[in-house]
Amino acid sequence: MRGRHAAADLRSNGFVALAAGMILPLVVIGAVYGGYQMMSSTGCSGTVRLSVAASPEIAPAIKDAAARWIKTEPRVDNECVAVDVVAVGASEVAAAIAGEHGVTINTLGQADGKTQVPHVWIPDSSIWLQRMRAAREDLVPQNAPSLARSPIVLAVPEPTAKSLGWLENKLTWKQVLQQIVGDTRITPGIVDPNRDAVGISTMVAMASVRDQFGPEGDALTVGAIKALTTGKSEQQSGLIARFPRDADPRTLSTAVTLAPLSEQALHAYNATGPAVPLVAVYPDPAPIALDYPFTAMPRLSPNRAAAAEQFRSVLSGAEFRNLLSTHQLRANDGTVGTGMTLGPSAASSSAVTPVPDPKVINAALQMWIEITQPSRMLAVVDVSSAMKQTVPSAGGLSKEQIAVQAALGGLDMFPESWAVGLWSFSTGHQQLVPIGPLNAQRDQLRGALGGLKPNPKGGSGLYDTVFAAYQTVQQGWDASRGNSVVVITGGRNNNPGGMSLETLVSSLKKAENKDQPVQIIIIGVGSEVNQGEMQKIVDATGGAVFVAQDPSKIGDIFMKALALDDGR
């Protein structure tokens, strides 16, 4: 029989006790917790109690397997085995383990003070174990065999998948990023990678594009991550709630239409019978799948370690595979049990990408942090006579009109956390909107951009304006943000009484503060822009030059330029 100590142990862990065929309700701490306790009690000399914390989607299968195992009356040295199962997110357990040992997991944050450190931890991914090892090698064991598997897919509403032609096609990650950056039918979302293994897996896959394709890959990756940021959620439930509830075009245009999810989460969503089901797109190469490692924590007592190993041995085979399938999970070898039906693209999920070194994981997380850092940007738009020229390939629109359209499109993509200001310039410059919080002045910026018109006789004080803009951003430099000047110009400097190129470059080098970087991004519109001269300007401080020889293509150029505006 359990004494007062055992009862107190159950209360402190927020478990629901199941003993002698009776369910004893207890207060559960936190809505995410659901606990179960099973024990065998026939002729035992004592009890070995095993607490198990499992990710919510696999916890029911673990609980069912434990209940069946307990019926066999397992023992360790004639002590009965009791198993307590609690469903809790991996990030909470990781933070609790780190907090118990006085270490910090990079980008994770502090423990919530409620989650207990279990004897056995079954997170959704071995990525968590790698993050723990990066903080301290002995926080988790080296051997943690996987119990199940759920590939990472791109979840796309069925109408969107049909319009994109994605129902059967295999897609490379480069193709996916190109679509995210350039296709208005896609509104992406993601769960914060700092606290979600699916998000981390996605970042690792996207980083491979950045590494493989050089500057093009860099622009695609940064642009896609910035787009994902606008649809970021802190929890999976928040992300799923943003998928469309009906197939009306207006609903599809405002809902999330692409997000990385586990295959399990997608199947669980579709099992609810939504009006708009999700299609699983399996990108190539496959992201790191969720693998649910059985993690017996270090420094367990011998009897508890033996009980953990006995329990691990029953979490395999056909019976457990069928338990997993009832919760939309594959067995650890990728096979499925009775009752789980996979979509037509699921065959491509057989490829397995190994969990990488902790350094690779941390680098991917750092990429996310750097790119999603809020920006503080001063946009400077040319209104000299060069911008009045019409562009036949753009239906006779002027350079100015094309530039404004591109800028308005970019403005709509900027997250609320940004700070943005706007200047115009001809021979001299004019502040139209001071640098300030975008959430308070988005409409003001939109109106100012829409009112820009070229001066038919205006010269171009480009060099003086660039230096003044640089000084303005530098004076208000913000350590919590990327600080930048973005210049859109359609011609060369044409101001005899102003700075020369040599004077500008020299002045920028003298003004530069390595500890407070400000980068300059120049977007040229048309063949009149001298790219070599512009490159000398950005080389002085860091930045990039993009020139649209055909002004009608400035939209694509503009988005690539903004993709690099991450303050690095």
Sheet with the most strands, sense and barrel status: 6 strands, mixed
Going by helix content, strand content and strand pairing, the class is alpha/beta
Nearest-integer average pLDDT: 85
* N-end to C-end Cα span: 63 Å
Task: Enumerate how many helices there are, as a single number.
Answer: 20
Q: What's the shape?
A: elongated
Structure description:
With 568 residues, this protein is α/β, with parallel strands linked by helices. It is 39% helix and 19% strand. It is built from 20 helices and 25 strands. A hairpin with a 3-residue loop joins strand 21 (419-425) and strand 22. It is elongated, with a radius of gyration of 29 Å. The relative contact order is 0.10. Residues 1-36 have low confidence and may be disordered.
